[in-house]
Every structure is written in C-alpha cells, then in structure tokens.
Amino acid sequence: MSTQPQPQSQSQSEPRSRSGAEAAAQVTPAAAQLTPPAAVRGPHRAGAELHLDGLTAGYGGAPVLRGVDVRVPAGSIVALLGANGAGKTTLLRTVSGLMPAASGRIVFDGEDLAGVSVENRARAGLAQVPEGRSVVAELTVDENLRLGGLQRFRGRRLTTAVDGIYDLFEPLARRRRAAGHQLSGGERQMLALGRAIIAEPRVLLLDEPSLGLAPRVVAQIMAVLRTLRDERGLTVLLAEQNVTSALAIADHGVVLNLGEVVADRPARDLRTDSALRHAYLGF
Ligand SMILES: Nc1ncnc2c1ncn2[C@@H]1O[C@H](COP(=O)(O)OP(=O)(O)OP(=O)(O)O)[C@@H](O)[C@H]1O
Known about the structure:
Distance between the termini: 43 Å
Strand order of the largest sheet: 6-7-8-3-9-10
CATH superfamily of the domain at 20-37 and 45-132 and 202-241 and 250-257 and 277-281: P-loop containing nucleotide triphosphate hydrolases
Region (Disordered): 1-42
Oligomer: single chain
Low-confidence stretches: 1-36
Family: Belongs to the ABC transporter superfamily.
Order of helices and strands: HHEEEHEEHEHHHHEHEHEEHH
Protein name: ABC transporter ATP-binding protein
Radius of gyration: 18 Å
CATH topology of the domain at 20-37 and 45-132 and 202-241 and 250-257 and 277-281: Rossmann fold
Structural class: alpha/beta
GO molecular function: ATP binding
Pfam family, one: ABC_tran
Strand content: 15-25%
CATH class of the domain at 20-37 and 45-132 and 202-241 and 250-257 and 277-281: Alpha Beta
Bound molecules: adenosine-5'-triphosphate
Number of strands: 10
Shape: globular
Helix content: 25-40%
C-alpha cells in the first residue's frame, strides 16, 4: 500500500454540510454555550474509510474480540461504546497494529492492513490517541506539537500547522510555552489530540478522550471533533464511556459487550430511543 498519501485540496475532501436543525440536534447544552472553534485551515488530507470484518484478537490465546464487524465510512464519527472490559481499547490497539489480530480483516482506505507495521499504518494516516493523554512531559506545548507535525511538515508549513492547532484549541495557544507536566488534565488531552491531528490523519482512533475531564472541556473536545469531521472530512472511531457526549457528535454507534457487537445503529436512534438505550447502554 502507499505509505505517503498526497495532500488533497479541501474541495476534494467533500466536507459535509448539515442542516441547522440537524446541527442543533447534535450539540450538548454545554457545547452549545461554547464559541465554535475557528474554521480548519486547509488544504488537508481527506478522511478514509475503515472496515473491520470478523476481527478476533486477545491476550495469550484468550479471545477478547470475537468476530467484530465495524464500518466507519469516510468523513464520519462512529462511537464505540460499552462497559469496562468490553474490548474497546483492545479493538483500537488491534487496528493501530499494537496488537496482532488472530483472525479477520482490517481494511483501511480499501487496503487490507495485514502485515503492515505500526509505523506504516501511522504514515498512511491511521492515528491513535491512547487513553492517558500521552504528551512529552519535559517538552513545551509548542515543542510537543512540532514533534507531532514533523511526521509530515518542515519549516514554514510546520509553523502553519502548529498555528492551525492553536486555532482549534485556544487554551493551548495561551499555554504554548508551558511544559507538558505543567498542564491541566484538559489541556493535556487537548495537546494529545493536537499532536495526533497536526499530522493530518485520515482516520483518528480515540480512546476515552473525556476520561476525568470537566463537562465544559469534554464539550470543547467534542466540538473540535465535530468541526474536523464537518470541515475536513476526518474519519473518527471514538471509544467512550461518556455515552451522551459521544452520541451527541457521532453519526453511528456500535455497542460492544464482552468482545461482541450487540448493537450497531445510527447515533440518532441510540440518542432518542430510550428503550434501545436501556437495552444496550443501561440508562
Ligand atoms: N494486557 C492485557 N493482558 C490480559 N488481558 C487484558 C489486557 N488488557 C486488557 N485485558 C482484558 O481484555 C478485556 C478487554 O479489555 P479492554 O481494555 O479492551 O476493555 P475496554 O472496553 O477498553 O475497557 P475500559 O473501558 O475499562 O478501558 C478485559 O477483560 C481485560 O481484562
């Protein structure tokens, strides 16, 4: 597979426009109070489609994922939901190549990823932000972002890319000279996300970005993800226990239980159908 996709113009990314009513239905009350992030600076690589077909994976021979099928269309957000231990992190790690698949297929932009290294998956545009807000503690915000951006940019283009992240995450712009270890939990999560986004991934794998954060910060992060989808056509697979926040921005919801898909529905159905929510999400 090609490991160096070429940048595409924004018009090629075919960003989706939404009706006002649809957009309004997708914001949480907290998100509604926030100023939307600035428009995404372009041009950018467009999102790619991701399919998982019959994916099985586990630890030491004990299966955790059992024949999981998930489809994440290009330019959409799919919420991956489920209780503790359902297999969300295992699924994301298997897709990014950190864990081997025992069987099944992972298809990224039409290409089977079997045998493709973690590094080449990242180069092709598959980015994972693990749970725990991984940033380099000793480096400043600016240095962390530049490090993330070096994968694709040098010189002035790198500076423009860093400025693009500050447009999206205003709190980071104010803290650009602070070291990673001096940041609040919310700022660290924004930086972890910024480091992944700056390299213009085509599919973003996010593991519980809301964990331990205040509702306002969660709303801010979800608003950025929505902007990236709508304006850049980014594809996002979002593992979350914060079901309400995830479904507020997702197009589709997939519920895992003990490593199996038990529901695969439009997010609108999971948001609005209380019987469905009660059956699969327990509230
Ligand atoms: N390194 C490991 N070795 C062995 N078993 C593991 C390992 N990591 C996770 N597991 C097991 O795999 C199962 C799925 O865990 P996983 O972390 O994927 O779930 P999760 O849905 O992400 O949960 P959470 O929301 O708590 O992070 C659990 O039973 C867990 O105990």
